[in-house]
Amino acid sequence: MDEKPIKFGILGCADIARKVSRAIILSPNSTLYAIGSRSLDKAKKFAADNGFPPSAKIYGSYEAVLDDPDVDAVYLPLPTSLHVKWAVLAVEKKKHLLLEKPVALNVAEFDRIFEACEANGMQFMDATMWVHNPRTTKMKEFISDPQRFGQLKTLHSCFTNAPSGDFLKNDIRVKPDLDGLGVLGDAGWYCIRSALWAADYEMPKTVMALPGAVLNEAGVILGCGGFLLWEDGKTSTFHCSFLANMATDITAIGTKGTLHVHDFIIPQDEKIAPFSTISQTAFKPLFIGWDPLPEQHVVPVDIPQESYMVTEFSRLVKSIKEGSKPEKKWPIVTRKTQVIVDAIVESIRKGFVQVQIEA
Predict the structure, then answer these.
(1) Which residues form the Gfo/Idh/MocA-like oxidoreductase N-terminal domain (predicted)?
(2) Looking at the domain that runs over 130-304+338-356, which CATH code has it been given?
(3) Which of 57, 101, 318, 336 is catalytic?
(4) Could you confirm whether 95 is annotated as catalytic?
(5) Which of 62, 173, 186, 275 has a CB 3.0–4.6 Å from the CB of 261, allowing a cystine?
(6) Under a CB-based contact definition with an 8 Å cutoff, are residues 250 and 168 in contact?
(7) Helices 107-120, 83-92: crossing angle, 10 deg rounding
């Protein structure tokens, strides 16, 4: 059996690439093979600062990575406005694609990327890391249990973070020509994915941005909320912001149980992943407490959640090398997330109206 690791190339030296390069190094079935930047010196420094293996190829252009015949897959963390160009080129060069979120500025752009993946038989996955954490599997077991959780009624999520320094002036996520979706494409992407995840990726019938969205002078979203409504009446709300202290919470409420997780984006300790559940809850007599009390769960994590993501992506790539077809689950989930992002943007632009989601 072929045990050769999947060889990754990275396009660009974005800060998030530091985390993912570490994840590739720690993944058991991948190897960090190449890095490319528009500046050879910048690529060399990035490789040296982030523990690249001595054998890693260092290139002074993105094209050189894509032209290397030994690169199996690329991780692409470039600004969102550049995704279509480089993602399409990557898959046309027969490189499997791990694409940083938001994957595109709108669903039409994503469709161009996925069409290129399908035409070239390349695997696609977006870099929504938390869904690959073993904790997420355990949480799903709970909310799928008809006895302990029942039917999902509502989910609330938030991801807020107030970066220090000159972030609000100079970061690419506040620049309309680089990452025009702002906080919605960054933090909001995770929140929207959590709602879809809890709903078994069933699409809502309507979406609405909540009044109170904050935009900068260039029109980029710095803070916003959203409301999702499904055909069967279940709902979800979310809030994302670059203007509030850090919070990364999910509360999922079913007819029989409730799930809470307070660090769903990045665990507070990467070696353990906690969450709590409670079922069939009632107040004690005289309303002096709860019965039963919430049950605390701690899931041990052997490697960082980003490495679980890389490991799964590499497994899929290896399967394709052995004759399997690309797994379509991930691009389908990505597209659904992007559709809802687009709907929130449309709702904000039209004055916080409800937007119908086409089946």
Answers:
(1) 6-125
(2) 3.30.360.10
(3) 101
(4) no
(5) 275
(6) no
(7) 10
